[in-house]
Amino acid sequence: MIELWNALPVLIQILLKITAIILPLLGLVAYYTYAERKVIGYMQVRIGPNRVGWRGLLQPIADAVKLLMKEIVIPTKADKTLFLLAPMIAIAPALAVWAVFPFDEGLVLADINAGLLYVLALSSLGVYGIIIAGWASNSKYALLGAMRSAAQMVAYEIAMGFALVGVLVAAGSLNLGDIVAAQEGNLLTWFWLPLLPLFGVYLISGVAETNRAPFDVAEGESEIVAGFHVEYSGMAFAVFFLAEYANMVLISALTALLFLGGWLSPLPAAWTEGSWLLSDGFHWLLAKTFFFMFLFLWLRATFPRYRYDQIMRLGWKVFIPITIVWILVVALAVVYRLPPWWSA
Amino acid sequence: MAEKLIFYILAVITLWASVMVITRKNPVHSVLFLVLAFVTSAGLWVLLEAEFLGIVLILVYVGAVMVLFLFVVMMLDIDLATIRAGFVQNLPLAGLIAAIMAVEILLIVGPGNFGLDAFPKPEPLGAEVSNTRELGLLLYSVYIYPVEIAAVILLLAIVAAIRLTLRRRPDTKFIDPAQQVRVRKGPDRVRLVKMAAEDVAPVVDKGDAQ
């Protein structure tokens, strides 16, 4: 089996690895939409989808087929090339980031030194899909949504970047695998505790970056009908939808990786001897990611939409000062080797 | 071999995109071609093993600066007819200036400055060398004064830009969101009052009402 694998050309090996990452991811995204409808349904004392398949389990597939069959309507005065390019620009960075994402010790497609920087750079490209969609649609609501999201994403990207600077200072490396290795120990040595303010800022900025409730002013279905994707239909719309959910999965997975020790087990090493379930492994990363994915849905079911000027105030006047102060604190703690995190 | 192929593909796209930036009629298209040129230049830097610079180019220019650029350009109401008016009569003078500038550039950075003699091929470094670290060490030791001075100049530019454009307008109905979010339900919005029950409303004889 291994000989067969090694006999394949490198390019084919890489393509197979990419498929092995992307296919489960798209499946996860599809069932995330189902989970959202179910979870929010139960939170609002409804049942949610329950007609297609057992307990509605085939609903995402039915939705996908429906969207595939629908006509893609292109508005008359729209910029046709950019109109069709925008959904692709939205989804490409959301998928490309997974190239440097480590799923377990050494289990990564591209183990690059500047991994964290790569993640930040690619996630900053997602905003182009939204802006181009808003402008190319030639619709006032779409343009308003694009304007709102551009201002919001640029603002929260800075807070998010500063939070990641804190992680980088604490771990002393930009490599995602090394960042997890730096959190080795137990529940209390993971970065969520020494970087608690940055953890909060990162998580909330992540919600804002993905344009999810309560920061969903780019869509604002009750104010500007559906914002940037109001003119989109069929598969073109579905791709935006996929991109949004793929980004949510990504932010959840990154939060688990950077602040909650990734694949590290929360139990002390003495207890986990000889048990794969309790010791470090991919399943811990998955469990932590699922927790944050659930949090996204929980937030949506709980909070009303933020007003635009309050969003800007939170981003610029609250989060950015917090992150700058805490970077200073972390830097001092690292320099003076504050125990128990940086005593070694 | 593969490296060379990737280089030529990226270089051709960079040049093509740069030409498109100055020839497109629609400014939004120009900005997007500029973004493409930045992305492919970042690819060229990564080929030179300067992956830190390449990624930062994407992060800063594509991810932040060009987004704001696009933001402004989309808001502009550009009348192409007025911009293109007088193109023909200005062409001789503009062409002459352009030619002089091109000659000047050629004299300063002519073909003699390039090629393998001027820049011998550097030894490729191993994968374990982190050029982020190398660059950081250089910037904050050898080049500390230039970095600090550049930072102060940028800060000055920010402060100056804000000072020049910030105007207090007394007529806007601006609400301070900081004050608003501090409003609490208890003392500020809802007040619970304990009071005794009032008398039952007196019965009115309906016959008289009219």
Automatic annotation (TrEMBL), chain A:
<feature type="transmembrane region" description="Helical">
    <location>
        <begin position="281"/>
        <end position="299"/>
    </location>
</feature>
<dbReference type="GO" id="GO:0016655">
    <property type="term" value="F:oxidoreductase activity, acting on NAD(P)H, quinone or similar compound as acceptor"/>
</dbReference>
<feature type="transmembrane region" description="Helical">
    <location>
        <begin position="189"/>
        <end position="208"/>
    </location>
</feature>
<keyword id="KW-0812">Transmembrane</keyword>
<feature type="transmembrane region" description="Helical">
    <location>
        <begin position="115"/>
        <end position="137"/>
    </location>
</feature>
<dbReference type="GO" id="GO:0005886">
    <property type="term" value="C:plasma membrane"/>
</dbReference>
<dbReference type="Pfam" id="PF00146">
    <property type="entry name" value="NADHdh"/>
</dbReference>
<protein>
    <recommendedName>
        <fullName>NADH-quinone oxidoreductase subunit H</fullName>
        <ecNumber>7.1.1.-</ecNumber>
    </recommendedName>
</protein>
<dbReference type="InterPro" id="IPR018086">
    <property type="entry name" value="NADH_UbQ_OxRdtase_su1_CS"/>
</dbReference>
<dbReference type="GO" id="GO:0048038">
    <property type="term" value="F:quinone binding"/>
</dbReference>
<feature type="transmembrane region" description="Helical">
    <location>
        <begin position="319"/>
        <end position="338"/>
    </location>
</feature>
<keyword id="KW-1003">Cell membrane</keyword>
<feature type="transmembrane region" description="Helical">
    <location>
        <begin position="82"/>
        <end position="103"/>
    </location>
</feature>
<feature type="transmembrane region" description="Helical">
    <location>
        <begin position="12"/>
        <end position="34"/>
    </location>
</feature>
<keyword id="KW-0520">NAD</keyword>
<keyword id="KW-0472">Membrane</keyword>
<dbReference type="GO" id="GO:0003954">
    <property type="term" value="F:NADH dehydrogenase activity"/>
</dbReference>
<dbReference type="InterPro" id="IPR001694">
    <property type="entry name" value="NADH_UbQ_OxRdtase_su1/FPO"/>
</dbReference>
<feature type="transmembrane region" description="Helical">
    <location>
        <begin position="158"/>
        <end position="177"/>
    </location>
</feature>
<keyword id="KW-1278">Translocase</keyword>
<dbReference type="GO" id="GO:0009060">
    <property type="term" value="P:aerobic respiration"/>
</dbReference>
<comment type="subunit">
    <text>NDH-1 is composed of 14 different subunits. Subunits NuoA, H, J, K, L, M, N constitute the membrane sector of the complex.</text>
</comment>
Automatic annotation (TrEMBL), chain B:
<dbReference type="Pfam" id="PF00499">
    <property type="entry name" value="Oxidored_q3"/>
</dbReference>
<keyword id="KW-1003">Cell membrane</keyword>
<comment type="function">
    <text>NDH-1 shuttles electrons from NADH, via FMN and iron-sulfur (Fe-S) centers, to quinones in the respiratory chain. Couples the redox reaction to proton translocation (for every two electrons transferred, four hydrogen ions are translocated across the cytoplasmic membrane), and thus conserves the redox energy in a proton gradient.</text>
</comment>
<feature type="transmembrane region" description="Helical">
    <location>
        <begin position="90"/>
        <end position="110"/>
    </location>
</feature>
<dbReference type="InterPro" id="IPR001457">
    <property type="entry name" value="NADH_UbQ/plastoQ_OxRdtase_su6"/>
</dbReference>
<feature type="transmembrane region" description="Helical">
    <location>
        <begin position="6"/>
        <end position="23"/>
    </location>
</feature>
<keyword id="KW-0472">Membrane</keyword>
<feature type="transmembrane region" description="Helical">
    <location>
        <begin position="54"/>
        <end position="78"/>
    </location>
</feature>
<protein>
    <recommendedName>
        <fullName>NADH-quinone oxidoreductase subunit J</fullName>
        <ecNumber>7.1.1.-</ecNumber>
    </recommendedName>
</protein>
<feature type="transmembrane region" description="Helical">
    <location>
        <begin position="143"/>
        <end position="166"/>
    </location>
</feature>
<dbReference type="GO" id="GO:0008137">
    <property type="term" value="F:NADH dehydrogenase (ubiquinone) activity"/>
</dbReference>
<keyword id="KW-0812">Transmembrane</keyword>
<comment type="subunit">
    <text>Composed of 13 different subunits. Subunits NuoA, H, J, K, L, M, N constitute the membrane sector of the complex.</text>
</comment>
<keyword id="KW-1133">Transmembrane helix</keyword>
<keyword id="KW-0520">NAD</keyword>
<dbReference type="GO" id="GO:0048038">
    <property type="term" value="F:quinone binding"/>
</dbReference>
<keyword id="KW-0874">Quinone</keyword>
<dbReference type="InterPro" id="IPR042106">
    <property type="entry name" value="Nuo/plastoQ_OxRdtase_6_NuoJ"/>
</dbReference>
<comment type="similarity">
    <text>Belongs to the complex I subunit 6 family.</text>
</comment>
<dbReference type="GO" id="GO:0005886">
    <property type="term" value="C:plasma membrane"/>
</dbReference>
<feature type="transmembrane region" description="Helical">
    <location>
        <begin position="30"/>
        <end position="48"/>
    </location>
</feature>
